[in-house]
Design a protein that fits this description.
Strand order of the largest sheet: 2-1-3-5-4
Number of strands: 5
Largest sheet: 5 strands, mixed
Length: 143
Amino acid sequence: MALASGFLWFAVGEVAPVGNFRPWLKFHSTDNYLSALIGRDSGSEFLLHAFAALPAKAPIAVVYSEESNADTFLSYLVTYLAWPRAVRAVAVTSSTYASKLGKLDTTGLCAVIFCGVPPPPNTQNRVRLGENLVLVPRIAAPE
């Protein structure tokens, strides 16, 4: 049995080198992607905490550049982590950025998240979540 186990151990290492073994954490995959895209370790839990600070049932909008695969993928990660919250995806290009943001209906939104694209210059209350990720909470007008 020991001989078979030893053979299997070395055979697997030759066929599929796996590097160091370490435990799989709760957000292993999304944390790895977010670390590369926004430069933040434990980014998944950080984003979940940011979402928890927003009104629970209100939707968000995610604005991203469809000209960049990284920005598009980042928007998918944000949408995935925002679940079950509704998300309005707003794909922009350098030529459609201003017009699409101008037409964005923010009624009912609790926040707009910018993935790889900057918020408009006059935007207040920006919360930088990472290198390419900015959350802008929508401040409701007093009733």
